[in-house]
Write a structure and sequence with these properties.
By secondary structure, this protein is of the alpha/beta class. The protein is built from five helices and five strands. Strands 1-4-2-3-5 form a five-stranded mixed beta sheet, with helices on both faces. The longest helix is centred in the N-terminal third of the chain and has 30 residues, at about 5-30.
Length: about 160
């Protein structure tokens, strides 16, 4: 391995960690401001009604979801819609970490309540309550940089903490 490869790997790892942290901060801030839509069906409904309010679409899966054909079809349609409407898309893995960040149970609770569908999460930016923060800027910049490298749907792995 050359020095450039070692340094390049470290820079990439740090960048991914920074963007992961920014995404977590953004999701928490959006949740507090009620600017989060959770669930594939709920997200599709919102994008159909008001696509201009959506600033980020997070598509989350883990290895066990890779074989779910219906979910992959939903993702394909959502990605196409996001591309047509200039909405940043981010694919993430680490569903358990995502549930932790959002304060959601990752499994059914003792009352039999099913966990929310965290496979698709939209961050919205309402006109009256603009969601302006450094975390959103960092995630948006990462998405833009990825598109410049012909990676149209950037990927992040959320790490357990």
């Amino acid at each position: 391995m050359t020095l450039e490869e070692v340094v390049g790997c470290n820079i990439t790892d740090k960048k991914m960690e920074t963007v992961s942290q920014a995404l977590e901060e953004l999701l928490v801030a959006a949740q507090r401001q009620d600017c989060l839509t959770v669930g594939v069906y709920e997200s599709a409904k919102l994008m159909n009604v008001d696509p201009d309010s959506v600033v980020l679409c997070v598509l989350a899966t883990d290895e066990e979801d890779e074989d779910d054909i219906a979910l992959q079809i939903h993702f394909t349609l959502i990605q196409a819609f996001c591309c047509d409407n200039d909405i940043n898309i981010l694919r993430v893995s680490g569903m358990r970490r995502l549930a932790q960040v959002l304060g959601e149970p990752s499994t059914a609770d003792s009352n039999g309540n099913e966990p929310k569908d965290l496979h698709c999460i939209l961050v919205t930016n309402t006109q009256c309550q603009a969601l302006k923060c450094q975390a959103l800027q960092d995630v948006s910049n990462y998405c833009e940089e990825s598109r410049c490298k012909n990676q149209w749907v950037p990927y992040l792995a959320l790490q357990e903490r």
